């Protein structure tokens, strides 16, 4: 029997891939067996998915083969779906086998949070994976084709996006940019197309200063977006949404971006969780489990103001790096380090050539913010894949 500790990483998203990459650099030969489990052979950029969903960019720009990001002599990649986590037995049940572990990293990503709104899980689409955005893109194009065959069916070119956070606003912006091209392609009058962004909260883009939010909403309103703020979706039907005010908006395309919860496997494994998120300790460990780390959308950490950090790619990446450090420290009987989030800034895209950004105490909008968004994206590509990946996947225009 080998006495080499087994590290199993579940998920190759932002947190999981950074954990694996840092481990392969830090660990010595035969110091640990590391296995990375992911349901796909590729890593995809969640923060880019709104573009191929709307049809303004290619799916290929939003993903990269995991084998190009890790050294498969040091990291064993297993393509499979996780079915169950058994902490008592230190086992992970996959769809086609079982893995045992000494250390476990849960980086499974999040799931859409529907808040119990009837019909939402059944009739609304979500921007959560490569396959889901392909479906949204094809569905949108099909609706224009259907409208052209039946001009009386206005719902085919009505679009409802639930949620005005990052994902909702960025998708709405790309969709508004895409509509003129679709109208031209399918010979549809642009004035007939309606894009509704519905948000239960009183304002869009939480975390941004009011003047930046106002700028964003003005930009998108000029692009043809109708905002319905401070009103919740009460029910989702096959071809409509009912708002809390009683208003019905007929639409064949309903996209939900209104919230994220942790993966349900976390709760099923017996961890104490809030909406699938576990309040981890300062070293990113699950309560009562010195050998289990939870990072990314499944982790819950409180900021100095007493509020949970939002589940962003930025925090997941930093957690991945810290998690790898603490795994190595545990194997070597060294002191782990506390996770301290370093906010590098926040950028939201508002479509082609437009955006808003906060970096330190400075704010940016318009073209400058749009360029900052590209810089942020290329920085990530450089971190995980160096200059070759930047040149291959980066957006320079």
Automatic annotation (TrEMBL):
One of its GO terms (biological process) is aerobic electron transport chain. Its cofactor is FAD. Transmembrane segments: none annotated. Residues 6-320 form the FAD/NAD(P)-binding domain. GO terms for molecular function: NAD(P)H dehydrogenase (quinone) activity. It comes from the Bacteria. This is NADH dehydrogenase. InterPro entries: FAD/NAD-bd_sf, FAD/NAD-binding_dom, NADH-Q_oxidoreductase. Keywords: FAD, Flavoprotein, Oxidoreductase. Belongs to the NADH dehydrogenase family. PANTHER family: 64 KDA MITOCHONDRIAL NADH DEHYDROGENASE (EUROFUNG) (PTHR42913:SF3), APOPTOSIS-INDUCING FACTOR 1 (PTHR42913).
